[in-house]
Design a protein that fits this description.
Blueprint (H helix, E strand, L loop, with lengths): L4 H6 L4 H11 L3 H20 L5 H10 L13 H15 L3 H12 L3 H25 L4 H9 L5 H4 L61 H30 L19 H7 L5 E5 L2 E5 L4 H10 L2 H4 L11 E2 L18 H13 L4 E7 L6 H21 L6 E6 L13 H4 L4 E7 L1
Parallel strand pairs: 4-5
Antiparallel strand pairs: 1-2, 3-6, 4-6
Helix pairs in contact: 2-3, 3-6, 3-7, 4-7, 6-7
Amino acid sequence: MSLNVIDLIKGQLGPALVSQAASQLGESESGISKAIGGLLPAVVGGLANNSDNPGVLDAITNASSSGILGNLLGGSENNNSWISSLLSLIFGDKVSGLVNTIATYAGISNNSSSSLLNMVTGATLGSIGKYASDNNLGQSGISNLLGEQKGIISTLLPAGLSLASLNLGDWAKGYKFDNDDDKVKVTSHEEPKIEVTRSTTPTGTYPDRNDGGGGSIWKWLLPLLLLLAAGYFLWKQCNKKETTTTTTTSDSTAVSSDTAAVSTTDTAAATATTTKVDESIDLNGVTLKGYKGGMEDRMISFLKSDGYKNAKDDAALKDVWYDFDHVNFKMGSSTELEAGSQGQLDNLVAILKAFPDAKIKIGGYTDKTGNEASNVKLSQARADFIKAALTKAGVGAQALGAEGYGSKFATVDANASDAERAVDRKMAIRFAK
């Protein structure tokens, strides 16, 4: 099965970045998420349709060393300039139409839509460039990788968007999408023309010419066929819309419950979590920013209740884990955090300093996909990274251990969608004695 590069890029556009973008652009998190959901397939499709363009291949090759992934929201003037040039190269004069359509669809301003287009393009170039570098892909390999995306792009557009609605016109003319067969194209309302060779000399009777045959059959058959086709098209669109609604309500932002409670989180809870915003949380007179009911809020409540103090041993604490809401690693990395992750680590440091007697353990988890030995190694390295960060911040003595569990506690099937499996890819801590 070929690599779906959109799954590769999603690691750079996680909930932490959505929250940061919403704050920086003055938009709602739901609007930012909706815009990214429409822009990402469009940008990948644009690159795929230009998979043999030297300018596109050069941009992807150079992106891996440009540092663009490290600061997607604060790109340098130079980065923004060449991203704009690349967008003009792949979309031509349709860039403004794409920006306007996404702004209307997501309910955000055109300026925000334009900024998000640059951000998504930067994340796409950086992610593909890093993958190519890590896997020793030359430009021909990158071209093949992009070409493999052509058959799936239109199926990844969210409900309410289509290539036509994005004002892309003949931009996708170069290849056939998976659902093209579902679309009935009627270019004329005229009846089909039947060419008849006629003699200028009368030959008598014409037994093949009667009111019930020949061209007259189309007077009732063609409208019937069109009516059936239109009904089938509407049925397919309704099914597609229903499927999209079901699959997009569960994503990585829904990870906010204990490990033991993850399997009971339902779709309604997942939908509610995606709309959460950071609020002020009191830490003995110091204000932290975090979700109400999130990691910091629950930890502080537990410590203030003397729950930790009254726990007689480690066994009384080991089953309650606190999942990080914002701390996310870049895809495949155990040493690089996504933008916006450091803030929650700082919050954890502040909590440990406020309660110096409290001890914790750190856990890393993966989903069920991939090699388990590699999953354990990656999750262990990430747990060790968090422990090292706490040590550097001066609270290392309170972190008694770090362990990578791989997919041992994963609950979602390996064949589920990437968004559904996100609940199993997390970092968490628990109190310990």
